[in-house]
Design brief:
Two copies of one chain form a homodimer.
Chain A lengths: L27 H15 L2 H4 L5 E3 L3 H4 L3 E9 L5 E2 L2 E2 H14 L4 E12 L4 H18 L3 E9 L7 E11 L15 E4 L5 H10 L16 H10 L5 E3 L5 H13 L2 E5 L7 H10 L13 E4 L4 H9 L8 E7 L6 E4 L5 E3 L13
Parallel strand pairs in A: 5-6, 10-13
Antiparallel strand pairs in A: 2-7, 3-4, 5-7, 8-11, 8-12, 9-11, 10-12, 13-14
Helix pairs in contact in A: 1-5, 4-5, 7-10
Organism (chains A, B): Magnetospirillum aberrantis SpK
Family (chains A, B): Belongs to the HypE family.
Protein name (chains A, B): Hydrogenase expression/formation protein HypE
């Protein structure tokens, strides 16, 4: 029996190499990609087991009286790199945030990659390194993953699906159906930064003022808020569809109206300017590092103070109130003094914004 | 202030409708798709909360002394519908199996959909219904999900990424690095059925004998095995790259050689015939309802008996032995009496087989 020479393969040519179909085939090329690019970047005990699943301890006392949460999001953003972030950091922040919006502490992430044949390895490494950095900064490890490759023309560079799990502390019960008439509506900062940053890159507008995406992991902000006031009614991050669509969702889920005051909603002047130029309404533009908090009115001041004391909540504001309304309308007193309905986003304002 | 009429939108036209970009936009069209198609099919308490994440109880006694597992897989199979299954059932079975291959009991699944503009709603409904059925049959609910839409030509119909979590019972420690020289290598049934079923559909070969995919959820089989013999060393499902690539992975992880006996490896005659026609080796062809089990030799008979008593393990067989080998080669005594090396899959034998 002739034995093959089991020499080590040459390392991946990150600078000039490209993804081909063998990188998704389950054989030696995939193994090499996983080792040299993914395991090297994400490096953690669970992933380093190199099994098809990650096993890890959850101290039972963490779960005592608490609940688990699970959330998933696909990221198809175009372009892949944008001012203030990229698809890799976004895929970590977005999913950490969806865990945190249950008032939960994130435990771990998984990452599934669907890559188009021909995608540059250098871009893949940049994205994976950015994910790994975001994950380390957030303290939430990517414990398991998967890579698939589709033929050129059957994808668009790279799509990433991340899933997160976490644990809700005892006594915390945050849900979109818990808003009550009289509740205060808070936001953690300026609206529309992410969407405008991505659009400016896409349209090559080159604004004088660089507008950066607000992409950030909000779980430490949420932890501070929950520690101060466990009885928060609703938390949600206004991503696709922006503040307007997210508040409409909550209004319908809770069966309340929401009355906003336009002059209290923080929007950066440069974002306002860009929105005018692009024909967009900042209330419908995606955010990736902001949250909406709805709480009993007596907790609003405490929560605002906690938010403003956190680097990611410095511009937090009270922007409205929940009201009795069997139609569950979101309305707004405009800066001009009129009143208008803030309806759902009807069509697609900004495709592939996350 | 003029209020919009909040009439109910017309229900989705499943028979003739198609996905457009608004279905991924975060607005009303997405809301409708999620309600009428996804929530209606998957219907469970956690999902019905309609939050961006699912919250559920995990009884602390389940975790006492045990560990959690998390796993993710992207499904890009082409064609979407194949003899014996479709991308929807496959996305449930494949991820349930990756949880089970840790010896774990699956708790819940998430599902992320990336859909190409123009995709028929009727196909989407067929796929989602199939996922929901597979999930109900397995007793593992899809508790949360996400939908993104990409422009026509930037995807390929539909990609699905499912993530699963589960709990490993106390005393169970299954991992790819635990194979030892002397261990028995078992498989739960015939090799190559899934890959050949998909290829036959793709190439429109129309074999006389219908070859069906073996796609199935193996967690109840694993539960029976673990109950009989908690000290199983390795479990893994030989999907992409087939038995040969999976055994090579295990051999390297564990630092052992693996000696197979060709005549003991179960392969259906019609699969063998189709492989000859297609120029494929059944040992490299994907399976989606089979497992490899490596255990101490004294447990082999018990485990074989347990497997054969389960409907998904009727054709279980002892196919080889782990041996001392610092090179971690997989070798095979052929039916002709020779010996050959069973190397890694070098290239891409069957693109997009899962």
């Amino acid at each position: 029996m002739t034995l093959p020479r089991r020499t080590h393969p040459r390392p991946l040519d990150i600078a000039n190499g490209r993804i081909d179909l063998t990188h998704g085939g389950g054989g030696r090329a995939m193994q090499q990609l996983v080792e040299e690019l993914f395991v090297a970047a994400f490096d953690n005990d669970a992933l380093n087991q190199r099994n098809d699943q990650a096993a890890f301890d959850v101290p039972p006392e963490m779960l005592r009286g608490g609940r688990m949460v699970m959330t998933t999001d696909g990221y198809v953003i175009s372009p892949l790199f944008f001012p203030g972030g990229d698809i890799g950091s976004l895929a970590v922040h977005g999913t950490v945030n969806d865990v945190a919006m249950a008032g939960a502490r994130p435990l771990s992430l998984s990452a599934g990659f669907i890559i188009e044949e021909g995608f540059p390895l250098s871009d893949l490494k940049r994205i994976v390194d950015s994910m790994a950095n975001a994950s380390r900064e957030a303290g939430v490890p990517v414990v398991t993953g998967d890579t698939k490759v589709v033929e050129k023309g059957k994808g668009d560079g790279i799509f990433i699906t991340t899933t997160g799990i976490g644990v809700v502390p005892p006594g915390v019960n945050v849900s979109g159906d818990r808003a009550r008439a009289g509740d205060a509506v808070l936001v953690s900062g300026t609206m529309g930064d992410h969407g405008v940053a991505v659009m400016s890159q896409r349209e090559s507008l080159g604004f004088d003022t660089a507008i950066l995406s607000d992409s950030a992991a909000l779980h430490t902000l949420v932890a501070d808020m929950v520690a101060a006031t466990p009885d928060i009614h609703v938390l949600r991050d206004p991503t696709r569809g922006g503040l307007a669509s997210t508040l409409n969702e909550i209004a319908v889920q809770s069966g309340v109206g929401i009355a906003l005051r336009e002059s209290d909603i923080p929007v950066r002047p440069e974002v306002k300017g860009a929105c005018e130029l692009l024909g967009l309404d900042p209330l419908y533009v995606a955010n990736e590092g902001k949250l909406i908090c709805i709480c009993a009115p007596e907790h609003a001041d405490t929560l605002l103070a906690v938010m403003r004391a956190h680097p990611l909540g410095r511009d937090a504001a009270l922007v409205g109130t929940c009201v009795e309304d069997s139609h569950a309308f979101v309305t707004m007193r405009t800066a001009m003094g009129g009143n208008r309905v803030v309806d759902w986003l009807a069509g697609e304002q900004l495709p592939r914004i996350c």
